[in-house]
Every structure is written in structure tokens, then in C-alpha cells.
Amino acid sequence: MILFSPVFSVCVKSRVAYLWLCLLWFTVLASTQSVLAGNTFPFSYHTLTQYPHGEVIYSHTTPPSAFLLSPKPVWADEATVLTTWQGFERGVSHSSMLSGASILAAFPAGHSLLALISRNGTSSVVLVDTLAQVLAEKSVPLATVTRAEWNGAIGGETYLLTVNSTLFAIECSGDSLRRIVQIADNVLAATATANGAAYISRFGSGASLHYLDAGLRERGFALLQLHEKYKIAAYGELIAVFSSGGSESGFLDIFQNGRGVLSSAILPARIELSAVIMQETQIQSLFLRQSGNQYALSFEPLKAQSGSEGKVVIIPDGFIEPLSVRVCDSEIIILFRNGLVTVSPDGAVMSADYFPLGEVFTEIPSITRSSSHIVLSSATISLLLLRDEHPFWIFNAFLKKSGEIFLWLGVTLLVFYLWRKYRRQRRVLNAALELPETGVVFVIDATGRLFRVNEAGRTLLGISNSVPLRRPFKFYGDVHIQEQLQEFIERSLAERIGQKQKITIITEQQSQEFMWSAIPLFAFLGRFNGLIITGLDITEELERKRLVNWAQLAHDMQTNLSVIRLNAEQLTSDNPQDDERRRKILHQSKLLMQKVRDIVTVGRSDQLDLSRVNTGELCAMVFHEFDEASHPNIKFEIHARPIEFDCDKTKISRALRNAVENAIRALQSTIGTVELSTRADERHVYFTIADNGIGMDDYVKSNMLKPFFTTAKDNGGSGIGTMIMQRVVELHRGELLIDSTAGKGTTITFKLPRG
Length: 755
Fold this sequence. Notes:
With 755 residues, this protein is an alpha+beta fold.
């Protein structure tokens, strides 16, 4: 937990940033879903109803009357079943076979239906009501019909019908048919206009455009070049004539009765993909062309309107094989093999929807539009499309246009955030690995390889920074350390759960107690990535606990030692040998009492009992505690100048005595010298204890002042003596100086303030 507390604090501090990141990512996902939903235009259309067995015709009334023309299979008979109902969706309906007639073409007339029928080899026009009942019928003077097309209505009672190449006018009055008037032969195209009608017919080796008034009287004509195909449309007083020779281009001529041709243009598109749109007093040609991998709808002003400018509307991606371009009630409808696009007169794409029109229709369907519906119909099948409005389409369109930028920006910000978070936590982890409180840290991957190690871990394993990692843990360090840790690591890898175990690490120089912890690492999706192994050196803590126990025992022993010393002092004998034994008992009791008091001193108050002390007397008192007879191989020397200074005499004497004991222990029963000397300057007094024993290597020197560190545990050493030396010097605001060379000896200097 020590290792992960900094990392956890970073995660907590970055929670606000994490919430912002989630919000950003949610916005990107929401925008993506919105774009994928297709709601990026003001409207969209979906299939409300499909009529798979005929053509449906709706009247222009409110509510509309629906007429479904369902031809029977040829093997049955040629009769057409007429079904009627009110409204766009089929409800209560009425059906009729019109006495076995076959409907060739039909057109709405108010709430009723005008139909050209064929029955028993004759042709006639019938008027049918909303109950599928024939209200009136008049014959057409043509026996065989090869082509039939209704060309619109003049006013509300006269309707134009082209049969084969003959143009007729059908006059109605209420529920009756007044008469059928033949207008012209050799007609190539016709349309109703605001004030009458216009038609194109053959004229010698060319063609001619004829103008009719509301009474069907001819008011003028214009000569045309003869082409293979014509399309004619009326826009107020203007007549637009499209013509084509069957190529991928066409011609457009704009006429006005009495003024002839107003404008002409060559269109780089088939006439099915061309149209004309009129806005107020301006008229523009439309044609669909391919632009790269997309299609573009071009608005081209007429030459006579030099003040207007053209524009190009790019059709959204994904549409293929255009079928037709129609202008219906000032809205441009473009049919593709795989969908439908609507464009407003000012060039804004209003909807773009995908439908399999090429699979549904075998011919280009006719288009009827109302305020909320579009009807696509042919002789064999019809589709009713319903319009849906999208109030937030501007926001969705903005996201679509900049969605890729936002997506990449979001991904970039996410990557940058994760990279910064990774770098930040990596720095925190690196710092945490090197904290003294962290102890030893090993990062082991799932296969048991050493992935990371801190400096304390390298020291324990005895490897330098130049040793490469990412090899199995057993290949690093001393074999004794490996054996003690390998079992713990292998068990933690196998069980993949957090574990703790106290393990004693024994090296050639010392024995250390470690509390080892294994923390499993799991990836976001739960994959096991390895372990973090931490080891805290609890040797000092355990020694402190032992010292507490020893201090309690030492406190009890002081009483026993006092009784032994008191009784020994009272022993009397005339035998000199007995007196010598009594003296040795008293001397050893005194030494043991001093050791006991050393142990108790560690737990005592840090207050000093200062007094004026002479350095010569202090050194003599220290050496007097050591029995020269017990150390015949050691020569004790004192070179003490008599210097007066203030100190806690008891604590200083114990510190000096412990330093002398360490010097005696360093000689290891070899012949040598222990020297205690003093000197002074203006500010400090120096006590120096020097020996010519085994000395210390770099490792021992760097660890000597650590609490409870000792190299003589096998000989009863505990490290308490060095602790007392260091603590006494700190209490006196002094300094403990150590100078040692392996094989030559050690010099320890107590640098103490003089006053």
C-alpha cells in the first residue's frame, strides 16, 4: 500500500479530468451515432406502405382519395381491379373490375378518377367515383392503343390525353363527361399551361411548338428541329422544351408565346436528368452530372439573365446510377438506383435517403408529392414514403461535416491524455520505487521475469545498473537470496492473489528480517500481468521489540546484580587467593551492571545531566573498567591532556567504553593496541579511540551507524553499543567521525562542543 498510495492520490486528483474525458468521448460517440443515423438533413423519408401489385394514384384533395390499379395476370384475363379508399394509408376500401375493362392510363380529377380503358377491342374514357363506381363513359375513336399518357388539366374541367400520337381534350362537368375533342395528330409531347395548352408535333421534316388558349384555340406556333425525344413543361407563360438525339446530352429551349425563343442551352446530361426551376422572375436550368466519385446538381441561369449566378450542389456520398430529376411543387426530387435526394430551389439538400429503387422498379417511376408524402409508382408497383422532420438537423449536419475532425481530435486528446497520465504515473511510480519507506521493490511479469527493480533491490541482489533486466528472477543475485525468495514468488505467480510472508535474508555479512508482500497486477480486461514484490526491512523494528524486552529484563537484573555485589563486598578472608577471587567477582559484576545500564539507557529520557569534567580523569575511568589481565594480547594506551569541558559524564563514559569494546573486538585475540587520546581546539574537545585491528570495508562503514547493525551477532553483538555512541554524541550536539581501512585498523573520534 505504501507503493500505491502516491499513484492512488494522482488518480483521485485527476478524477475531474477523467470526467471531462468521458464527456468528450461520449460527445464523439453521440455525434458518430447521430451521423450514422442519417439525421443530418431537415427531413428524411421512410417507406410507409408498399403496394406490390399495381399503381396507386392519389387525388390532390384533402383528404386525398386513393385509387389502386391492380392488373390481373395475363393468363387470367386483362381486366384491372380498381380499389379505392380515403386517405394515404389504406383503410375501408371498395373494389371493382369495371365490367372487365383494362385501365391503360389514369389521372385524378377532383375526388374522382379519369381513366382510359380498353374493353372488348374498343377504347373509352370513364369517370370513376371514390366507391369504384363508373359515373360516366365516352368512347375514344381509336381501336388500338399503343401509348397513352395524361398531360395535365386546364382549369378544373378540361384534361389533356395523348393516345398513340393523337392529342385529345376531355371535358368534364361534375359527375359527367361532356365531350372528347381531338386536338391534333402526330403529337410528340404535350402539357397543360396556366392559360391553355402547348404541344409539339411533326411538321414536315422538322417539328413545331403550338400554343393553345383555354378554349383550345391555337394562338401561335414556333418551328423546332426534329429530335428523337422531347419533354415539355410549362412555367407560367414560359414553355421549356427539352430534346435529345439519344446521347448523354440534350438541348433546352425556353419559349414565350408571341416572343419566340427566349433562351437556348446545351445540357451535358440526358433529358431525364434535366429540369427547369423558376424562382420569382428568374428561371434556371438544372442538370445532374458526375463530379469525381459523387454527383453534382448544377443550377445554370439563362443567358438572358446576366445578373444571376449559377451554383453547384454536391449530392451526398453513396448514391449510384441516377434515374431522373423532377421538379414537384418547387422541390427538386432526384431518384437514384439506391435512393432518393430532395433539394430546395435555393440549392440546399433537404433529405438524402437510401432505398433499393433499382430492385423495386423495372422502369423509371412517376413521382407525386404532397406536403408530407412522396408517391413513387409504376404500372406494377408503388411506394408511399412518409416524411420525418429533424429539428436538430443543423447540429447533426455540423457534426457530420466536422465529425471526422472531431473524431480525430477526440482520439488525439484521448491518446495525449492517456500518454500524459502514463508519464505522470510512471514518474510517480519511479519516485515511489526509490522512496526509503518503500524498501525493496521487484516488478515481476507474468512469466516470472524481473521487469523493474529499485536501487534498494539492486543492492540486495548485488547487481549494478548495467546488468540487463527482463530475464527470469532466478538468474539474478546471490543463490542464497534466490532460494529464499523464489518459492514465495513462484507461489504468488501461481495463486495470483495478494500475499505476505516474513523471510529472513542471510548474507555473508549479516542477517536481515524482511516482510515481503506480493501485489498482483491485472490489466483493464482482467488479464494477469505479473506481480509487484515489496520487501520492508523490519530488522530494526524487531530489534527494538527485543530491546524493550531486554530493558525490562535488565531492569530486573539490576536488583539481582546489586545483591551479588553487596554480598561480595562483605566477604572477608585471610587467604590472598580468596581476596583476588572476590575482586574479580566485584569487577565482573560492575561490568555486567554497566552493560545492563546501557540497555536501560536506550529507553531513558534524552535529558542531559551536565557537569564540569576533566578529560584525563574521564579516560582513566573508562580504561579502569577493563581488566588488563582478561586481555593479555592488548596494550592499552592513554594520551589524554587534562581539558575541562561540560558534558553528561555518565553518558560520555558509556559511549567511550562502548567504542573501546568495539576496538577490543576488532583485534580478534591478535596482538594489538587500543589507544585512547584527547585533544582540543577553541570550540571542540576530541576523544579518539584507535586500534590496529581488522578494520572495516566500505559496506560495513556505510552501514555502521544504522540502528542495530552489527557484524558480530555470532559473538553476542547486538549493535546497541554503536547506537549508544551515536545517540550520546547527538544529545551533546557533536559529531561521530569514523576512519577505517580494511586490514589496518579503525579510528573513531568523538567531536564534542567544549562549552
